[in-house]
Amino acid sequence: MELTVGTILEGKVKSITNFGAFVALPENKTGMVHISEVANAYVSDIRQHLTEGQDVKVVVIGNENGKINLSIKRLEPKPQRENAPRQGGFRSNSYNNTGSAPRREGGQHQERPQNRPQRSAPVQPAAPKTADQLFEEKLKAFMSESDTKLSSMRADHRTKSRRR
């Protein structure tokens, strides 16, 4: 079975480390759930969320160079933020909640225009990437770059140790 990104699987937690958990998958394959992919909330101790031998449902988020990256949190519903800004973002004018304009230097008021055209239903712009999506992209790029650097350092170390 080809493990493509987006594939949802059942697995069993084989081992737990400080940075993630290794999950046994079908066909004797193993994938890793990074600590940042365990839950929607901040996880300081992965052992509070997972135990060895636990059955888990995971989704494949990466499969590069034989390394299978998995996520548990992407299968869970995202929690709603209590103080999330209204749809449409922040107010575009400079009026405060009372409807009066803020004072300028010298105590003068800025008059509020009375004949502003009414807005029609807001047009939905293309959905911007969420903070989680941006973080995941940055994390993936960092991990890829880190793997590349570590590989080259190991290769350099091996050739230097052979010369001695």
Give the number of DSSP strands. Answer: 5
Count every helix, treating DSSP H or I runs of 4 or more residues as helices.
1
Low-confidence stretches: 91-96
Query: What is the second-level CATH architecture of the domain at 1-77?
Result: Beta Barrel
Provide the β-strand percentage band.
Answer: 15-25%
User: How do the SSEs run, as a string of H and E?
Assistant: EEEEEH
Radius of gyration: 25 Å
Helix content: 10-25%
What do the pLDDT scores average to?
Answer: 77
Q: Write down the CATH topology of the domain at 1-77.
A: OB fold (Dihydrolipoamide Acetyltransferase, E2P)
State the shape: globular
Please provide a written account of the structure.
The chain is α+β, with helices and mostly antiparallel strands and 164 residues long. Among the domains are: 1-77, Nucleic acid-binding proteins (OB fold (Dihydrolipoamide Acetyltransferase, E2P)), CATH 2.40.50; 133-164. Helix content is 20%, strand content 22%. Strands 1-2-3-5-4 form a five-stranded mixed β-barrel. It is globular.
Key words describing this protein structure:
OB fold (Dihydrolipoamide Acetyltransferase, E2P); alpha+beta
At a glance:
The protein has 164 residues and is an alpha+beta fold. Helix content is 20%, strand content 22%.
